[in-house]
Amino acid sequence: MYFYNRLSIKSQFRLRSHFCNYIYTQIKINMLKQKLSFLLVFGVAFAHAQKVTFTEYDLKNGLHVVLHKDQTAPVVAVSVMYHVGSKDEQTNRTGFAHFFEHLLFEGSDNIKRGEFMKIVSSNGGQNNANTSQDRTFYYEIFPSNQLETGLWLESERMMHPVINEIGVKTQNEVVKEEKRLRVDNQPYGNFIAEIMKRLFTKHPYNWVPIGSMEHLDAATLQEFIAFNKKYYTPNNAVLVIAGDIDVEKTKKLVESYFGEIPAGEPIVRNPAREEPITKEIIDTAYDNNIQIPAIMTAYRTPGMTSKESTALQLASDVLSQGASSRMYKKMVDEKKNSLQVGSFNYTLEDYGAYITYALPSGAVKLDTLLRDMDEEIVKLQHEVRKVRVDDSVADYLLEIVRATREHEDLRVGVSTRGALTMYRAAQALAFLGGRDFVVPDDLKSLVGPVLAHRIVGKSFLQAGEFAAAEAILRDIVDRLEVPV
């Protein structure tokens, strides 16, 4: 603290800017991950977008297959998503799913150790993988004449991956270094973990995918083999192929490469349910890597398949996406009490978390930032409560964006990603849910509890306070109910 205070004003500003840019980037990365799946789901209803046609079917072993033909460019994407994430781990063996994201690149009976990536790159492709609390996702992008290469690689990964001591030891060190780089030694690197362990006390969302290094160190080879046998099976996976393909020929290739892989045992999940949060919870988490305090609030929300989850994404676009969003314009541009402010919908399968955050400018108190964020949330609640949303829902929601972006050009082609996302998503809601969306009268009774049933956090130098609360933020655009 003494070191920080004796810096020149110019140096302090640079230091603050560095850390602000970092947390902003990290949060944007999380948001983009969430938006990717969101846009893929709702893209079919965009007013001016092409209709996405696809073929889907199941193999006898339970593998769900989705094929989409797009000859815009001579490329093809091959992806496999396994329905396994950190929520499927035991409490004393956290980090397994993310560990397997790395381990299953070690090779197979027919792919030598260390050759997987070389095969991809030597055939003009690129690949990557990621893991969440709910799923593990692998993909390759190749020139379309290398479709069969992609199918072979993923079938090898699924059918007979090599899991041995040398691979486990190697990837264990890789994961440890990743955790040190991206979490332990990064400013605000633990903020999601700190939020989740307070937001979920019973459900396995209590921990994040990176898991515990001590748990990985203590695990035996047989435990890793058993985890693979249980979860990385065709009946627990979805194969998606999109690009310059011949659908009928691709079906034959899929059958050839995946049809003989044996199905695994059915997976039964009975995750613990959380009790409603009935009062505010305030806590503090310390981060030795930061010089700027942060205040964060988190609300436990419905899972990603609910309409509430989609509504919260729309709320984020209005509140904090872009320099003309309501929170940013008010707190960063006008009042200048924040270096950064934002909100995002962290969507997961069973529950979600709606998170708001702010970093103060100068000596501004964190309570001030919290009050300003809350005012914008409540304002949006009241606006939506007054409106009947019918088949002009897209125009209405876009008008909200216009009200906060009057100095920006909303024409297509200008940098208005937030506005366009809002507009397209709104149309998707109208398209998928019917023509008459109404905001029910009982929304009025929810406005009061929004500030009373959450956890409020304050943070100080080298400290971040995190808040968590029940599904109150559905109020923001909550319950855009479709009449039965």
How would you explain this protein's 3D organization?
With 484 residues, the protein is of the alpha+beta class. The protein folds into 2 domains: 2-43 and 276-475, Cytochrome Bc1 Complex, Chain A, domain 1, CATH 3.30.830; 53-258, Metalloenzyme, LuxS/M16 peptidase-like (Cytochrome Bc1 Complex, Chain A, domain 1), CATH 3.30.830. The protein contains 16 helices and 11 strands. The protein has helices at residues 2-5, 9-42, 96-103, 116-122, 147-159, 165-184, 191-199, 213-218, 221-231, 247-258, 307-320, 326-334, 366-385, 393-404, 417-433, 444-447, and strands spanning 55-58, 64-69, 75-82, 126-131, 136-143, 237-243, 282-286, 294-302, 338-347, 351-360, 463-467. It has a 6-stranded mixed β-sheet with strand order 1-2-6-3-5-4, covered by helices on one side. It has a 5-stranded mixed β-sheet with strand order 7-11-8-10-9, sandwiched between helices. Helix 5 (147-159) runs parallel beside helix 10, helix 11 (307-320) packs antiparallel against helix 15 and helix 12 runs antiparallel to helix 13 (366-385). The chain is globular, with a radius of gyration of 24 Å.
